[in-house]
Design goal:
The chain is an all-alpha fold. The protein has 2 domains: about 90 residues, no CATH class; about 220 residues, MetI-like (MetI-like fold). About 70% of the residues lie in helices and about 0% in strands.
């Protein structure tokens, strides 16, 4: 088991290095610091002096990969690559263009993102799996047919419709919850109810169809027919056999959501005024704050890789044969 975990971690290291190198190329080679300065200064014609001053204030005036003017290890550490990319592996994100610490902002905004994302993840998973099992239980009936039709209709509607519709009904029309904003402590509950509800409802269509397809593949297998032949009730077959043996593809779909637990939802946080990492990323894109965008890209990649490793480990719990393959 230990060797299996170490192999998965070792596989993840070159992937993270590759993501870091690609990010560096996109932000500093394809889009040079001079280009960033011109976009940030917001003028069609800026003086070379203004560009050099902007670069010096943010540490972009150093050589890219090798500093011939430095001595010793400084030839490699006093470079843009080391200061802006290599330090990310130690989660040293530096400062944003406005001077604020990116690491402090991430730590501060992570809790509001988790306050919305974790309930959406847990409640959504339970609701979607339950609905999918119900459709499979009544497969080839009118309930199954109309359930699939509703799922297709739900997944065809934009998430913006659910957000705006939820705000109009629950906040403006019925005055049940605040339309946007966020509060600290227990007061945060009334601000996250509507975003959580919208997140769960907006994801029911696609997720339920996905899980239904997985469960339909399992109900026709030999072990299911054997269980029925032994006299087990259909509910016992569905929950004790079909659900258990379909856990590997279910876990595969779940891993996609793991980074969002920390990164937040861009649309949801922006429209509901939640000061999480999703809205932080949107604000950075609008402000052309490349330091924040670069940090969030790296953080999202690292979280996704962690999710893949956790998924591989969960496979060994569901099916111990995986660790020996």
């Amino acid at each position: 088991m230990t060797a299996y975990v170490l192999r998965r971690i070792l596989y993840a290291i070159p992937i993270l290095i590759g993501v870091n190198l690609i990010t560096f190329l996109l932000f500093f080679v394809v889009n040079t610091p001079d280009d960033m300065a011109r976009m940030q200064l917001g003028a069609k014609r800026v003086t070379p002096e203004a560009i050099e001053k902007w670069k010096a204030e943010r540490g972009y005036d150093r050589p890219m990969l090798f500093n011939a003017t430095a001595e010793g290890a400084g030839r490699f550490t006093e470079t843009v690559f080391f200061q802006k990319s290599v330090k990310l592996f130690a989660f040293d994100f530096g400062n944003a263009d406005d001077g604020r610490s990116i690491g402090h902002e991430i730590r501060t905004r992570m809790l509001p993102s988790l306050a919305v994302a974790i309930p959406v993840f847990v409640v959504g998973l339970a609701v979607n799996v339950t609905f999918a099992l119900a459709l499979v239980f009544f497969r080839a009936t009118y309930l199954d047919f109309w359930g699939v039709v509703l799922c297709v209709a739900a997944m065809s509607i934009s998430m913006l419709f659910y957000i705006i519709g939820g705000q109009f009904l629950a906040s403006k029309l019925w005055h049940l919850v605040p339309i946007s904003g966020y509060g600290g402590g227990l007061d945060a509950g009334r601000f996250v109810i509507l975003p959580v509800l919208v997140g769960v409802v907006g994801g029911i269509g696609a997720a339920t169809r996905w899980y239904r397809t997985i469960f339909l593949e399992e109900v026709n297998r030999d072990y299911v027919r054997t269980a029925r032949a032994k006299g087990l009730a259909e509910t016992a077959v569905m929950f004790r056999h079909v659900l258990k043996n379909a856990m590997i593809p279910v876990l595969t779909g779940v891993v996609v959501v793991i980074p969002l637990l920390f990164m937040g939802s861009l649309l949801t946080e922006s429209f509901f005024g939640i000061p999480g990492l999703g809205s932080y990323t949107i604000d950075a894109i609008q402000a052309q704050d490349f330091a924040v965008v670069r940090s969030m890209v790296f953080l999202g990649s690292a979280l996704y890789i962690v999710g893949l490793i956790l998924t591989d480990l969960s496979y060994t719990i569901v099916d111990p044969r995986v660790r020996f393959e």
